Structure formats: structure tokens, C-alpha cells
Amino acid sequence: MLKKTRAKRGQGKVMVVDGGGSLKKALLGDLIAETALNNEWEGFIIYGCIRDVEPISTMKIGVKALNSIPLKTQRKGEGENNVRITFGGVTFNAGEYVYADTTGIIVSSMPLTNRE
Fold it and tell me: What sign does the dihedral 57-74-6-89 (CA atoms) show?
């Protein structure tokens, strides 16, 4: 489902992927990340592993994951889009706003603005 979804236009969107916290196989690699970038996705939050860390780190796309591993996952064509996902004590709902940096991730039902 990840490979299929990244091919859709993603302007302003972040793809949140629940990999069950598995550290056995990578759910994202450089080719999928590059296609997502070309389709204007802003980033990925992966509850699992990624691979191809070095090439992905040079792309202008945000990626948060639990870890990295060089092993690809087997494609099963499984998954759902636009569903509520909860992991790490955070619930992600389609249409919410996600903000991330090196410190962590914030989810908000409304856009956050800088207030001084």
C-alpha cells in the first residue's frame, strides 16, 4: 500500500505508516522516497524501519522511523488509507497537522502558528 500511495499527489501531506514497530524489514527505501518527493509528499513517519538512509538523508523530504535495516519487505498489497493509527502514545487521524524535527513529533487538529 505504501508504494501505491506514494505515487499519488501528496502536496502538503505526510504519510504515517504503522509497521507494528517491527525491526525485521524496511518499509521505506530510497526509490519509494524519491517517487513520493516527486509527487510533492512532505514526509513519512514510519513505525518500523527504513533502508537506504544515506540517499534518503540528501532528499528534501522528512523521514522519521524507529531504525534502519538493509532488508526489504515482501510486498503483500495489504494496508489501509486514511484510518486512525496509534503508536508511541500518539494517535494520528487523517487530515490532522503533523510537525516534526530532531526532537520529536507533534500532532494537532488545527494548524499551529508562531506566537511570540
Answer: negative
Nearest alpha carbon to residue 61 among 46, 45, 42, 38: 42
What's the chain's average pLDDT?
Answer: 91
Determine phi and psi for 5, rounding to 5 degrees: -70, -40
Model confidence pTM above 0.70: yes
- CATH of span 2-81: 3.50.30.40
Compute the distance between CA of residue 87 and CA of residue 89 in angstroms, rounded to an integer.
Answer: 5
pLDDT-above-70 percentage for the chain = 97
The H-assigned helical ranges of 22-104 are 30-38, 53-57
Q: How far is it between the farthest Cα atoms of the chain?
A: 48
Annotated domain spans of the chain: 2-81
Return d(Cα 35, Cα 82) in angstroms, integer.
Answer: 20
- Say if CB 68 and CB 91 are below 8 A apart: no
Residues 6+ apart with CB under 8 A from 20: 47, 48
